Each structure stands twice: as structure tokens, then as C-alpha cells.
Amino acid sequence: MWGPACWDMDTARKCCLVRWLKLKVCRRSTFLFAVLWFSSWLLLNGLLFIHSNIFSDVCTDDKSRRILNRVCEEYHRGVLTGDLCEDLCIGGNVEYKRCLYYENGKKVMVADWRGIPIVLKSKLENFSSYEPFGFLDYLNTPSNTGVQEELTALDVVLYATLEIKNSLGLETNVNITLPQLWGQHVRDQGWGYTQAELASLWSLLQQEEYTFLRVLQDLSRHVAKVVGSCGHFYAVEYLIAGHAWDQNIFSLDDSAGLDQTFWNGKSGIDRERIHRIALSFLDMVGHFEEDFSHHLHLCDIKPENFAIRKDLTVVAIDVDMAFFEPKMQSILEQNCTSDRDCNFFDCVTKCDTHTHKCGAKRKNSNLQVICEKIFRPWFSPTVLGSKAELPLQVELQSVVQECAEMEGGLDVEYGRAIKQRLTRLLTHLLEESSVHKKEYIKSVHPHTALNF
């Protein structure tokens, strides 16, 4: 009697169990699917982020050519201009060679201009990415159709001067004129400035490195020369940068300035060149400290940011991290809890634990960092070999070590004394090298009697 009822009850339980298991499996599958979908979404977005932030800034020839083609398209439309544009976009006298690097939006590439190698640079890729010259918008309003006649060359220079002051943090010399800042083809009398010229000038003045190089163009032989511009791209002289992996830092094979005839091997030539280059570094340090109205600080001192000309003059070729004293102080004066918070690349100051503010005065100096990063590797016993035990070399190593460990920013007179000692030792080494060279020439070519 109970059999069928029990059977029905057992069947119902089994059906419920099956349905419960199916529901549990379904929920688990749904959960796993959701997790898988979310993981895939995260992975895809992560890959897109990496591509947009890393791989999109990979330096390629194709992208560099597209960038320059876009510059020329805007030139033909009258959006931008410059003294290089005609040669770049019409005459074919600017020939792209290779991409050097992209970094944080900055684009740097090598080209030939009428057979002369140049470096093309821009802080941003697109002309439209720069802040427009606000006065142009004012000119374009319907109620200001006659204003253009009132904007003189002096007005433009005034705007440029104010932008330079804001960019570099200093008062500019009253003798700075627009042609000095922008190139010889820009006119300085009458109105004469098209909207393309003003917009292009404004994009250049928003690039601190361009402004810095232009202001110092005729004032210093230790900065790269600007040779022209097209829109937001400007061209500087091409010089081979230093390399940290090279014990000489600079390639010395192509440099002139020394008579290599009858000298005792490549080692002797290289050491003499290095002494001359070291003296040029010291000249640059003195120049940047004493020859301007404000001390000029280099906050990113490394071989890659310097080059040498044929005459062995040291040239700063990347000055994005160079600041005059007023701007340097504003950068250093930050909140802090320890001295480590007051390190701005190679420019270092101290933390006041009472006020929790970094000091406005730089603790180290350009000379100290150059001694630490460039001179110490050059004049180490490992590089000098057997010459490391010579009296002058031993003294030089000692002074370089002292220089690398000093706080020359706080004790200016001590820094100057170190610089004088280094100059004296390097000059003596050059004189000694000159004597050895003359003795070598005499030994190779002794005087002989003339036979008639």
C-alpha cells in the first residue's frame, strides 16, 4: 500500500535534487563566466593602456615622416610657417634621416638641411596641442577688424618678452628682438606679421628649451645653436651626444683641435683631448655661474645631455632641465619631511625640519655633479692604468674626489678654489703632454747634416 506513494515521494526528492544541482551548476557557470569576462575586460584595457602610453611613443621612421607630412600640410593651408618650411615642404632641401627618440611627448629626429645634419625637435607632436596666441582670437572677432593695424612689431616683441620672462623666470635684456628669437627672415618693421607667423612663434615660445637656446644664442658658445624652425618644430645643430658606456664618454675619432702627426699612439691623443674637454667643462661651469645676471643651474647632468664640437668645446644639447636662479628657487621650495624630499634630479637642497620646507638655496653645484658623474670616471686609476701613479695624476684624482664630495652650492668660494685647482692641474698636464710630444718628434726625426 505504501509502495507507490513512497516511490512517488522518492522520485520527487530525486527530481528536486537534480533541479537543485542544475541550478547550482548554472549559478557557478554564470559566476565563472562573469569572472572570465571581467578578467578579459581588464586584460584588454590594460593592453590598450600600455599601447597608448608606451608603444604609441616608440620612435619609428614611419611615424616621424607622418608627423613632418602633417606639418607640411598645415604649412600649405597657411596654419603655420617658419624659415625652414619652404625647404622642408616645397624645395625638398630638408631630408629626413632617422628618428632619435620620443620622450614624454617630445619628438626628436635627425635630418639633412642642404647637406648639413640638423636635429628637429618639438615638445609636443601636434601644432594644435600648443596653447593658441589669445590675441589672434581677439583680432578675428567681427568688432575688431581694424585692430590688426594697431599691433606693431614692438607689441609682438613685448608679448614675446613677457612669455620669455614667464618661461625662464628672469628679466630679459631690452636688446632682445624678435628676429633674434625667431630667425633672420622674420621682419621687425611695420606690421608684417601674418597670423601663421604669430601662431608659430607662440608655439615655439611655449617650449622652454627653444626659448632658453634662443636667448643664449649669441651669449654662450656652450649651448647648441638654433638654425631655423617650421611651425612648432625647431632645428638645432647636429652634434654627437656622449655615452655613459664609453669610458671616454665622447667619440674622439672625428674631433679636431689636435695635431695627431707623430704622436705616441692613440692613448696619448685621447688623454690630451680628454684634458682639453675637461677644461672646456670647467669653462662652461664658470660661464654659467658668472657671466649671466643669475646663476644657471643644470639639473640633469649626464653624458647624453652634452656633446663636443670639432674644436672640443663642450655644448649642452638638452637643456629641458636647466634653470636660472629665480626659477630654481621656486622649484626647490617644496614641502618636505626629510632631505630626500628635496632632491630635484641633480639639484639638491636641505629640508628644514622645523618649517618642513626645502631650502631655496641649492646645496650642491654644477661643478660637484660634473666631478661626480664625468670627471671621476675619466680620471680613475682603472682608466689611467700605469699613468695613475704619476704625481700630477695622483693629485688630480685627489682633487676630483674632493670636488665630487663637496657642497659647492653652499660654499661658493670653496667651489671656486676647487675649480681653480682643477684648471691648474689640467693645464699642467697639457703642458707636460706637449713637452713629451716634442721629445717624441725629435726622437723620430733627428736632425741630420745636409748633403750637397
Order of helices and strands: HHHEEEHHHHHEEHEEEEHEEEEHHHH
What percent strand?
5-15%
Give the number of DSSP strands: 13
Q: Termini, distance in Å?
A: 152 Å
What kind of oligomer do you see? Answer: single chain
Which features characterize this protein?
452 residues; alpha+beta; two-stranded antiparallel ribbon; 14 helices; 13 strands; globular; disordered C terminus
Model description:
This protein has 452 residues and is of the alpha+beta class. It has 14 helices and 13 strands. The strands form five sheets. A five-stranded antiparallel beta sheet has the order 1-2-3-5-4, sandwiched between helices. A two-stranded antiparallel sheet has the order 6-9. A two-stranded antiparallel ribbon has the order 7-8. Strand 4 and strand 5 form a beta hairpin. Helix 9 packs antiparallel against helix 11, helix 11 runs antiparallel to helix 13 and helix 13 runs antiparallel to helix 14. The termini are far apart.
List the helices and strands and how they pair.
Elements: H1 3-53, H2 61-76, H3 85-91, E1 94-103, E2 106-113, E3 116-122, H4 134-139, H5 153-168, H6 178-182, H7 195-205, H8 208-215, E4 226-230, E5 233-237, H9 265-290, E6 296-298, E7 306-308, E8 314-316, E9 322-324, H10 325-332, E10 343-344, E11 347-348, E12 351-352, E13 357-358, H11 366-378, H12 381-384, H13 391-405, H14 412-444
Antiparallel strand pairs: 1-2, 2-3, 3-5, 4-5, 6-9, 7-8, 10-11, 12-13
Helix pairs in contact: 5-7, 9-11, 9-14, 11-13, 13-14
